[in-house]
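User: Can you predict the 3D structure of Tripartite tricarboxylate transporter permease? Sequence below.
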Amino acid sequence: MDPILKALELITEPYTMGVMLLAALFGLFVGAMPGLTATMATALLIPFTFFMDPIPAIAMIVTAVAMAIFAGDIPGALLRIPGTPASAAYCEESYAMTRKGHAERALGILLVCAVIGGLTGSVVLSFTAPVLAEFALQFSSFEYFWLACLGLSCGVVISSGSTLKGFVSLLIGLFVATIGLDITAGYPRFTFGNTELLGGVSFIPAMIGMFAISEIIRYFTATTSLPRPPQKAMGNIFRGLGPILYRYKRNIGRGSLIGAVVGILPGAGGDIAAWISFAISKKFSKEPEKFGTGNPEGLVDAGASNNASLAGAWVPATVFGIPGDSITAIVIGVLYMKGLNPGPMVFVNSPELIYAVFMSFFIANIALLPLGFIAIRMSRQILKVPQNVLMPVILMFCIVGSFAINNTAFGVTVMLIFGVLAYVMEENGVPVAPAILGIVLGGMLEDNFMSSMIISDGDLLGFFSRPIAATLGVTTLALWLIPPLLSLRRRRPARAE
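Assistant: Sure. Here are the predicted structure tokens for Tripartite tricarboxylate transporter permease:
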């Protein structure tokens, strides 16, 4: 059967559609709760994927994340608290519209732009990934080594905060990736005699800890409580929306494309895409003085951008096995757990899986329009759920999920250790995303480095012996060397003065 028809049959099965509907409701709820991120929603869904086939499991994650990213706009507009980091860029702008009495209009703009951005990102993913996968079939260990280096470097350069702290975070992740048996010599590294560590640090409990437990710790250590949601009922969010969207139609297209491209960069994600789009919108606006006063122009750009980046992040994840953001890092872990190695061979061996992923993005973003409308109408009730009840329930899911990986308490211990580690890192301004990339790509980096050294008989010039490998190598080395050289050049005249 044609892989596309088979994928359509699998994704439209009543069971898969039911899973996607429940995941949509879950994603909207988690995204609308301040402090609960889309990544945390993904981490909490992992225990449920144990009992599912790959397609329902992946469709569930895609749907939940698409909903959660938009839902993060709701508390941002109503309470001035972004539900997810992806909504932080335009939180002030949307809240300014609420103070002017236009909360419905702000949320209507964000909802429609999120749907358009998500569909644009889905189109980019559907057309880009197969072409790149066909190209990637020619790659050897030399190309994959440089791709891993490039992905890790991008994760440090474009992560939030200082580059030095991003580099430290990356080293932490790479160190964690070295724990366990040496893949070449079979020698145990940093196991301290613990047999549970011989296979390395279990990826899923570590992810649950870094994204869920750290948020729980942050909640219990916070000294301020959330403000109360507004008492006024929501009106028609689509009233007067047509002229605004027509006026800013170019902004919608620009924000969607920027989001999709930024999403493809390893380690970027929706929050960086939203910040870049918002800044570009203000830079090229004919009315930049209106930004900060409740101007819909910035909302249009950034609202489309963060949702478009979600699908873009799946391009490197599916084609090369390199996560585009923290969410796809977890997804790669789920694919490994299901016996599927992300990379170009997935397009050859399981094409129906790839097409089902594309379709799930389209279905999720189309469903976002009616479900997002319902979520906005119920926003007052959602925001009233007490977090002192919610957090213990989340903790229970985390413990069950981590225990169920190998049915041992060791997974729970790993989860707690990495939860505390992520909390300490974030409290000191050290981004977590580079560490995640290090954990995911560390094994791939070492494996391809050792394979390449064996193939080239220890000759380092072998890493530049193939045209694509040489191009990737020169690009990576330029990324490492040019920024410090430019910084050194700028300092010299200053010292001379």
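The beta strands are 180-181, 188-189. The chain has one domain: 3-223+236-487.
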